[in-house]
Amino acid sequence: PRANAVVYLDPARYGDQELKNAAIAKCRTRVRDVIAKDPSLACSFFLLALLDGLSYDEKTRRGGPDGMVAASIQLPGRAYAELRDVVDLLQESQRALKRTNALTLADLIALSGAESLAAVGGPEISVQLGRTDNPELLNSIKAVSKGGLKEAQARGIAPAFDVEEAAPSDIVKAFRRSGFTEREAAALLGALAILQGDDVVNAKAVKKEDKGAAKARGKMGRGDKASSNYAIDLYGTNEGTEEASVDKFEGDIDEFYIADAFGSRKEAYG
Length: 270
Prior knowledge:
The chain is mostly helical. The protein has ten helices and no strands.
């Protein structure tokens, strides 16, 4: 039978496991690198992933995390401009990864949203891969860039709520529309509030992270010295040993440290 949702997940779409692991590790490293240099971007990565997910309508079973958020944010305002900045970073990563094993923009958005939480010492979230990008994504980006909010509404891809000046009731309504419970909405909005807080936004940028004592891959624990920089590791729990065996980006931090943030291979890849 035909699926009711618009978004389809195909965990096997990336083929070779080793190349896929390298691509994912590179994406995670890139996000950590960017957040270390500009901690205020952690919120934008998370909000982008949140808006992509909130595009799902539980009643019509349409929408969902298909990357179309990259088109819906082509609107005026500083908050939307900040979201476009992180989309540009993800698209840069996507182009670079095409030489090995490209990830869809939808998967990159989800991975970066999870990594933004882990980067500040938040919970490590296992992300199911295999999202398909909306085939109308590029056309919609061009159309909304020209036509603004009216064009986005006409195409049914307006943001779930106005990130510039949404009322609390509008945000709650967006979560209910997507089928979230009050408890789930509170957890996600609490995470967003932490990322928007002064401790993260105004955290000092760093050039190199102190790894502390080495840990076995996949195990958590506190190193000799926990980082006092919220944008790197709030609780000193992000120990791991994974390395990304793909080409470096210009400006990447040497020996940058990332966590085993997506659970076991079975949890991460289905």
